[in-house]
Amino acid sequence: MPRIRLNPLSRIHGYMSIEVEINHGTVTDAWSSGILYRGFESILKGRSPHDAVYLTQRICGICSSAHAIAAALTLENAFKIDVPHNGKVLRNLILGADLMQNHLRHLYLLAIPDYISAPKNAPGGVRSELDLRLPKALETRIQENYLKALETSSLAHQAVAAFGGKAPHLQSIVAGGVTEHVLTDRIVRFQALLGKLAKFVNDSLLPDLEDIARYYGDYYQIGKGYGNFLSYGMFPLDSDEQKKHFAAGLLVDGEAQEIFDAEKISLDIHHAWYQGREGPQKPLAQASSPAPGKEEAYSWIKAPRYANKAFEGGPLARMWLTGIYKNGISVMDRLMARAIETREVAIQLNNWLYELIPDQPTINWLEQLPLSAEGVGLTEAMRGPLAHWVRIENRRIDAYRIITPSAWNLSPRDSAGQRGPLEEALVGTPVANANNPVEVGRVVRSFDPCISCAVHVLDKKNASRVI
After folding, report:
1. How far apart are CA 429 and CA 221, in angstroms?
2. What are phi and psi of 45, to 5 degrees?
């Protein structure tokens, strides 16, 4: 059976290799490889806990606010410190605006060019003419919106900066809250930017995705995967963060499951280029070192599991678990759920602006670091579940662990041989032309892959080494 390797896969964040086995025009097996080494956990060791909020944002320039919030939640859990109401609302506003810029950029710049010819000189490049189905008038309209999306997504970053100080890699989120004050001019500016964003989402994004879905209806049956969804919940609505606008929960084989328990999260390195304890390990217990060239390994991504099962996260999981969108679990469902989530977030951002209380605190300052502590911070990033863990000794970081959404979605097999969610979703994909497998790219990009900000070097002989 022939194998095809796409390396590196284009129009994603970071460097990724996909290998598929094809039999009689159908993918029968798949391997997802993250070909960049992540070194942030090593960078953090020995540093002040407060550094985590700023350094972990550099993991990704497209969703830095999510890492800032995850790190802050981790420290707040370790320090037993509460965040004032205004601080929580400001975090929702920052993360929501950042989510909108990500979704607009992913859908228009990375995903939609799988279904249209990209405009000439476009950042995504001109793609193959294979399997283009839209009438010329529709394609022309979507091409025009592709270019408008570049400008519109920048408005979302301006909205992030209104309360975050700058974007990406904002400065205002810290353990205890947000350092920015609730000022009328910033509220007005945020609302003005939000109005333009919401108009583009309603007038352009949703109609464009609906038209693409009409002409590519078969993609509601392609890329289904396990049907296991996981969400930590997003945008807290109450003081103890138990109630969230996008619900936390689990879906196993399409059926709702018991309440989520963070103690059931594990990491497996059997097929990853790391040396350490084999089998499922709790995150803080998973001490590992880079091992390029390790036998049976094929990815720098570890394999996160919940109760020893592989789970998919992201907009489709959030929309399904919240009950907003429950049509299916396919390629087209992922794209539609991301567009619908963008609209939903725009509505809620406007509502949250009215929850801000002028002249009230936005932060509870920590007076002194504890000598030792452990903490975990669970949130949702643009692509799915994001968690940070910290262990503090002598007021310094002794261990720090991060499981990103793309680690969940793009993981390799685990020690039991269970494929990662993307690998499973690729199985069964029809491929019309093995020399140009556009169908494989469509499945992969529906997950919005992100494998950025890692440290991996190739020497002149193309042999892997780490520095």
Report:
1. 9
2. -60, 130
Give dist(CA 150, CA 123) in Å, integer: 10
> Phi then psi for 331, rounded to 5 degrees?
-55, -55
Full 3-state SS string of 266-282: EEECCCECEEECCCCEC
- Please give the sequence-ordered ranges of beta strands (E in DSSP) within 194-298, or none if there are none: 229-231, 234-236, 244-246, 249-252, 255-256, 265-268, 274-276, 288-290
Q: What's the Rg (C-alpha) of the chain?
A: 21
Q: Where are the domains of the chain?
A: 3-257+306-465
What CATH number was assigned to the domain covering residues 3-257+306-465? 1.10.645.10
% helix, strand, coil for the chain, step of 5: 40, 20, 40
* Segments in 331-430 forming alpha helices (H): 331-353, 405-410, 421-426
Per-residue pLDDT of the chain (467 residues; tens, 9 = 90+): 688 999 888 888 888 999 999 999 999 999 999 988 867 888 899 999 999 999 999 988 888 999 999 999 999 999 999 999 999 999 999 999 999 999 999 999 999 999 998 777 676 555 556 799 999 999 999 999 999 998 999 999 999 999 999 999 999 999 999 999 999 999 999 999 999 999 999 999 999 999 999 999 999 999 999 999 999 999 998 766 678 999 999 999 878 777 889 999 999 999 999 999 899 999 999 877 889 999 999 999 999 999 999 999 999 999 999 999 999 999 999 999 999 999 999 999 999 999 999 999 999 998 889 999 999 999 999 999 999 999 999 999 999 999 999 999 999 999 999 999 999 999 999 999 998 999 999 999 999 999 864 333 323 344 433 32
